[in-house]
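The authors assume throughout that readers already know how a fold can be written as discrete tokens. For illustration, here is how one protein appears when written out as sequence plus structure tokens:
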Amino acid sequence: MSISMREIAKLAGVSSATVSRVINGSELVTEETASRIRKIIADVNFVPNTSAIHLKHGKSQIYGIIIPDLTNPFFTELVKMFEELLVENEQELLVANTDFASTRLQRSLRRMLLRRVDGVAILTSEHEAAALESLVQNRIPVVTTDHYKSACGISDIIIDFPGGIAQMVAHLKKLGHRKLGFIGGTEGLETSRVRRESFMDAIVNQGLTSRSEWMVTGNYRIDGGSVAMKGILSQKEKPTAIITANDLTAIGAMRAAYDKGLRIPDDISIAGCDDIEMSDIVYPPLTTLRISRREYAGMLFEALRETAKDLSKPGPQFRLPMSLVVRRSTGKAPSDRKPARKSATRRGR
């Protein structure tokens, strides 16, 4: 049987207003009285009408996050850390997955509007300006990733792909690689364009070589990486190292290389991007570019809170660095390797 706030007040010997103040965390109630009320609430398992409380204060205490691929461990790890931050601040998280489809993004945005979320983190590349404006017009702050544009009520987190991929290219150059290939992300996405252009700029700046047939499109998933790698390996002349748009793509590329009988990194080096947990488990462990999910989640939270302070102004921009993590999937270029020493043949006794 449910119990009302009025009955809680009667049990505590206070007014309903005092009970309400305790539920809302007001400091206008003495600690002794507040403790007594909290104990009664716990004893009778009272659940306050949070919808009414939030309506009164104009806040839902819910944030939304829209991601492109729920099956990608990078995003599930990020969502987990973002939710941990919200829970620490007594807020909840509404998660939506677009599967890289703009129609699903539109439905997700409508859900966010209906729930009157306090802010939305949009981590997909298929969004349009009009969709973002609909949120801001409803007084909902927005943070995007790699949107590269400033607008009122919208903040942006720019991941330093140019700097990160330049680090990876320099690492491979140091190992003697001169012919590099690249497996990108889904065609038509802004993040795919940025990663591909970052690779092209890096090899030009460092005096290395690539060819159009060595720069192919994947889909940010294992199957796409495998198919793309098979295409590269079918060429008469092949690169000695491959950089991929994310770790799942790299894992698919590794599988295709193994299917061709190649040894990693003896015959070909493969590198990823993201540093998901799986990258340290595959064999050989994957050299990759780390994007700190904890730092990323913190930036999302800070960006939404800062932007909410004044929706009439463009929100802040944050830059998220990438760091090189060297493991065993990259090694010296085949031409730079010393030939294996032949074991001495034992003669008679």
